Amino acid sequence: MSDILNFLQTRNSAPRLTAPAPGPAEMEAIFRAALRAPDHAWLRPWRFLTIAGDRRQDFGRLLEECLLMRDPAADDAARAKALKAPLRAPLLVIVVARLSEHPKVPVLEQRLSAGCAAQAILLAAEASGYAGIWRTGDAAFDRNVMTALGLAAHEEIVGILYLGTRDGAAKPLPDLDTGDFVSSW
Ligand SMILES: Cc1cc2nc3c(=O)[nH]c(=O)nc-3n(C[C@H](O)[C@H](O)[C@H](O)COP(=O)(O)O)c2cc1C
Fold it and tell me: What is the pTM of this model?
């Protein structure tokens, strides 16, 4: 089996991440992989925001603030979780879908293209010797969070990618049978 095929078959998300994260030159290469996401009509319906270093603390404060706007009764544990969420990895990449009206490309296809870009980032990060995980949650769908991050009304978060170095052993991969998912018609 080719190394690339084996790599694709064994990609594994990493819920626990630590430093180092990919550096600037490595991120440039990773983003170049994202720019090869399939894209109907060449709309380029995505962009990417990076959050690293102290900005993660600022982002945590924003997440806590927006949590309290969604749920003023949020308890201390929920507030602390929001505040600390961005510290789970040294680098966050927010994948933004940029949606527009198009006669042939419904917004679903534009969201899917952004999802492909997100997957390309995860794969390219892993190919570069790092690890990551795609997360969303209520904050990712909160318009207050999006606005504070500078997203326009036609933009959405499709994923918050946590990137860094795997902390601990990789989780075992499930033993799935393609026959449960594939049939001929
Ligand atoms: C759109 C999307 C959103 C996700 N959001 C979360 C999330 O908020 N929290 C989480 O723990 N996993 C989330 N996941 C799942 C993880 O990214 C990952 O797929 C899961 O832990 C299984 O690991 P694996 O990808 O290595 O099989 C999400 C996945 C996708 C595709």
Answer: 0.97
